[in-house]
Amino acid sequence: MIKITLPDKSVKEFPKGVTGLEIARSISEGLARNVLSIEVNGETWDLDRPIHHDARVKLNTWDDSEGKATMWHSSAHLMAAAIEELYPGTKFGIGPDIENGFYYDIDLGEKTISSKDFEQIEQKMLEIARRKEVFVRTEVPKEEALAFYQDKGDEYKVDLISDLEDGTISFYKSGKFTDLCKGPHLIDTGPIKAVKLLNTAGAYWRGDESRKQLTRVYGISFPKQKMLREYLEMLEEAKKRDHRKIGRELELFTFSARVGQGLPLWLPKGAELRENLEKFLKQLQRKAGYQPVITPHIGNRNLYEISGHYEKYGEDSFRPIKTPSEGEEFFLKPMNCPHHCEIFKSRQYSYRELPIRFAEFGTVYRYEQSGELHGLTRVRGFTQDDAHIFCRPDQVKEEFTAVIDIVLHIFRALDFMDYSVQISLRDPDDMSRYIGTEANWEKAEKAIIEATAEKGLKADIVTGEAAFYGPKLDFMVKDALGRKWQLGTIQVDYNLPERFELEYIGSDNQKHRPVMIHRAPFGSMERFVAVLIEHCGGNFPLWLIPDQAIILPISEKYEEYAKKVLHLLKNYEIRTLLDERNEKTGKKIRDAETRKIPYMLIVGEKEEAGGTISVRKHGEGDLGTYSIDEFAQMIHREIDRMISAR
RNA sequence: GCCGAUGUAGCUCAGUUGGUCAGAGCAGCUGAUUUGUAAUCAGCUGGCCGGGGGUUCGAAUCCCUCCAUCGGCUCCA
Description:
Helices cover 35% and strands 26% of the residues. It is built from 20 helices and 33 strands.
């Protein structure tokens, strides 16, 4: 007998060799019907794999992410099986489960596959699923596995197996389809009741641009048809929050092919929104001891040779601008730091003056590959809410944590609580990608890790994601469709101060090298606004929104009174519009609701007589009658509540 | 940049196999209406069917090419 410990700490005895399915059945028939995989001492196993030793186990159902993963991984095999039947000769790459569903990378040779073919594949998948094909695990020696795929002519699998360690290699077979796979899988294809292929994409073999591009087919599956329907509805809902759609509807920004792709044009409402954000941060920065600086949009080639940007990005970036007679070369600035370094160099600093904090909403231009551009989140010209802190080595941690505080303050003010934090370190196996010494990198990475821990932030540590001059702490947020974007970033840099030979005079009257902290709490205004739009669905916080209120006169008769109210509210610094159109009140309300204006102020006979306004709140409805003063106080209180740190 | 898809009025979309196919709703303009918490009525304007080239007696529709957009891949200072 062996002892099996369940998640609730209860211990049950089973005969040696008991399987997950048998454990589930011993608990209840219902669980046995719904269980998808089992975790044995933290490792996910097939339900029919015998357990020979005492173990902690957890039974995974659809409600566990591990259960979904098992389902989706098996669904990837199911899709591959369907594709192999429909398109004989297809070669298969990899087919994992992902956060929402699964994909399989396939090579169809001369054939192509597109969304038109999806239905046929889905039908075939369901047909196979209904047969309840059992997933059979077999283990074979490496040579045998290689021979199998060499025979089949599938060079991708051969490539995969060649990289595996010698020994036995596991295969899973269900029906006619056999696949190299370490598992685990469902018992059989039965639980897969609903499938939907979502899209296709080109994907380089092993993520390497220089290798062949395979066709990646994305799909998702569910144990119930209803769940699929709900998932598709959810996707539709998410599309409604897409910043590109809302940006157009609310007239925030646009693009023009004539101006150039990836170059956003901010419309008046969008510009006002952005200015409100900038004002907010400028105020915060002034309090935190930042000094504004302003630098030009281009810089001499020499500047970027010193910073290392030229070597790193010169060839892949915009071409230089040349002066006609002197033959000088200038680049559109890709970053503000080199300019700020030169500002620091413009005079001598004492250790007593540090830290020096230079802040600039600096617009930068980067060549992004055309296929990478995406609304406001990935553009070729954007404005960073940039600042560079030049400090003494002993001030790094304190300055770093102070920046974290600013980022978190902003996130709170915008009710932006669903973010993740990532520490990006260098790739120790490929130091050629970076500038600077080992010792400097170690110091910088240590500073970030310690400061982050001190602030109690739970950060994922990712190697190989650092900037070329230093490690980063990034704040990431998901968009409406679940894609992750980097917003705020804080970077510790020992390298650029060396390259620019930055110095300050220490208490010992000697020259010392400062440390630089690069930081941008929003990241870029463009990307931040994009994510903000999707976060609030265009219903911006009251303090930020361009138009806070709109006056809706019942008829032309009350226009004079409406103008008086408008004047009063403007004196209260409430951003107010007046709808003077010759329309019925219902229409004006509908339009104001569509424009997502927070407050609608209806004025007619009653209001004019009493010197009041009828207040309707966006998305909520009639709030009743207020005096102008009362309303103004209410607005200001609401705003204060939002922007004061909670 | 690569793979795949898409491109018809400002916006959202119809347009059958190439042959009155240049359409609708909203928006806009002009009038009428003087309006009380999500759409008042009527009339009108508006499109080189993304650009260019080709096939054809004839192209929004088929082919090539360029541009832009969308979904991924790669990249992201």
